[in-house]
Specification:
648 residues, Butyryl-CoA Dehydrogenase, subunit A, domain 2, Butyryl-CoA Dehydrogenase, subunit A, domain 3, binds Palmitoyl-CoA, binds flavin-adenine dinucleotide, flavoprotein, AcylCo_DH-like_C
Amino acid sequence: NLPFSWESLLPDFPKGPLCKYRKKASFNWKEMAVLLDGKDIIQLKNRIFSALESDPLFVHHPGEELSREKYQELTFLRCKRLFEYDFLTQQEIIENPLKIFHMVLCIGMYDWSPCIQYLLHFLNCASYLLEFIINTPDFEAAKFWIGNMGKHATHAVVYAQLYTPDGQYQGLHSFLVQIRDIKTLLPIPGVVVGDIGKKIGQNGLDNGFAMFHNVRIPKENILNIAGDVTAEGKYSSSVKDVKERFSAALGSLSSGRTVITAVSMTNLKLALSIAIRFSAVRCQFGPTDDEEIPVLEYQTQQWRLLPYLAATYALDYFCKSLFENLTEFYLGLLTKQRSQRQADIGREIHALCAASKPLTSWTAQQAAQECREACGGHGYLAMNRLGEIRNDNDPNCTYEGDNNVLLQQTSNYLMSWMHCIRDKVPFESPFGTINVLQDYHHILDWKFTAMSVEDCMDSSVPLAAYKWLVCYLLRESDLKLSKEKQSGRSDFEAKNNCQVYYCRSLAIAFIEQTVLQRYHDYTHDPDIPSTLQPVLKNLSALYGLWSLSKHLAVLYQGGYASGEQAGRFIQNAILELCYRLKDDAVALVDVFAPPDFILNSPIGKANGELYKNIWGEVLQGSKTLNRPSWWTEFCINRPVAGRLKSKL
Ligand SMILES: CCCCCCCCCCCCCCCC(=O)SCCNC(=O)CCNC(=O)[C@H](O)C(C)(C)COP(=O)(O)OP(=O)(O)OC[C@H]1O[C@@H](n2cnc3c(N)ncnc32)[C@H](O)[C@@H]1OP(=O)(O)O
Ligand SMILES: Cc1cc2nc3c(=O)[nH]c(=O)nc-3n(C[C@H](O)[C@H](O)[C@H](O)COP(=O)(O)OP(=O)(O)OC[C@H]3O[C@@H](n4cnc5c(N)ncnc54)[C@H](O)[C@@H]3O)c2cc1C
């Protein structure tokens, strides 16, 4: 019952082999798309997708190998074009900041290289409006990996240790430093700048290095987020404590980590769109010799893919909610809030995105590999794009902070609440993510109580288990830390010895619980249309149970679960949910898959004409039917077997 205008915003898919599954879906994919994104965002996505599709600069080059140099050039031209499109007005951004988030992800769905290049320029220009001397003491201290710096950036935001003329160390600060001449692109005297070389992915983007030798920059170029220096060289800061200034200087990293959480989630969307459409069409074997069935009908294939589909939905919702949290944080910064609430928001956001980036980038990394294998040999064909998605997703696990290192930030935050728990002091956090710890003592007594598989089919079951898990891992991590300290270890050693199986697991369980809590609340909201709620609840339950199943050992170890049944119920409920969702799977990816031009994968096309699409692409290769240029080496200069064998 969608109004006519919705039909034109979300056109029907072409008829073809995927119709069989589309007809079996329990819900209307357009209604779902409208629920999840809303009219404005769908219009924005269409606007961006169709601009890229109609622009010759963005045309794909099937079967052509671009050199890195050419790819970097093309990426730069595309990045410039993105500035020309200027997809969003300032007014639109003010009215709905979520639009920037969608704009970035739409461009990224096409290719992450121009997207990230554009984003780095865009954010650096937008966010930053003494007589200092910048020095790189040695090669190990060189700036390395910097996006856009390899070939073309003219200015860099440089994080450096600030020493004032009185010799005092003032902590980490950021400075705007010119590195190349804006007319010639040649380096500024005192700067050695260059390209770091080929990467595993994202090769359109030029990452560079820079070393500074007595480079003088004007006093105004300190980006005085936390502190400033007067003309006389006196340091002043509204944030008195060096440690607090450090965290203020690093505050901007939360935005990057939030964006990367969403970038990774978008890679999940791309990989699953391809693998699920492929699986619904690709037939192999069957119950009888003359009947072949789609590989999606196999239990293993369902179990390999559908939990990732559920994760995509849960993480998509989480990303939007995290972005809203971040917007609140930035509004506070812009209006110069100095309240305790603003400080608490900063800490909570930091703890959330320091764990959501690892969770989402790892999930996407594993999903991309699983999707690659789930498409068999076709998954390994570069034109089908799963290799590119996997390789381009990979650095999400590393940049803006290595995942394993970042998880320590989240566990530190959680551990910091132990004194309130111990002293029974009331506490809460602005976004409520740690409020579960208010019931810490009570929750630790909880047990797994489901009596049947059917009992487990709602996300309330894994959610309760997660609450217990977070409290349990917090208690164990705290105990372990105390024991390490009691046995005479230094703070550094003690903390280091508490990571594996304790703090690291705690941070992961916490973020999974937070994602699940938000998604559970959303899917159980009475305002969700009754036509969509059943499938959304199934996704929520599957995401929760599947994520939880990786912690089964700890659930038993800590006494939350006992006996054979608990584990069996969870496993059987996962399989049952996969089975229930398999007929909805194609419609569920139709909701988020970008148009064919953007997805750029013959086996992932919306018409499901697997073989025709692959053939079409293979035959477009400029040299597909040519004999090789070195054909004479094969046909004429034949090897004389043993000619070079040692005669000794
Ligand atoms: C502008 C451009 C953006 C572009 C966004 C676009 C993205 C688009 C896609 C991707 C594009 C790729 C582009 C890659 C770009 C790079 O990769 S840029 C380089 C990024 N580099 C990093 O992220 C470095 C990672 N390392 C770190 O952040 C630090 O080593 C760590 C992890 C914070 C640990 O440092 P540490 O010295 O051990 O500090 P620690 O004692 O734990 O912390 C001190 C205090 O500061 C607090 N703190 C630390 N960090 C924060 C924070 N961020 N917020 C609040 N408080 C904090 C701590 O909680 C702690 O507080 P207390 O517990 O004392 O109260
Ligand atoms: C594609 C790409 C683009 C990038 N772009 C930029 C950019 O634009 N600007 C920029 O400034 N940087 C950029 N970087 C650099 C990036 O931010 C760093 O690579 C990242 O923060 C990790 O730091 P590192 O490389 O020094 O790793 P290291 O710190 O050397 O880590 C190596 C390994 O040691 C482990 N480890 C380190 N410390 C600990 C610890 N305390 N406890 C346990 N394990 C530990 C890590 O888990 C990791 O596995 C980019 C990186 C990549 C890959």
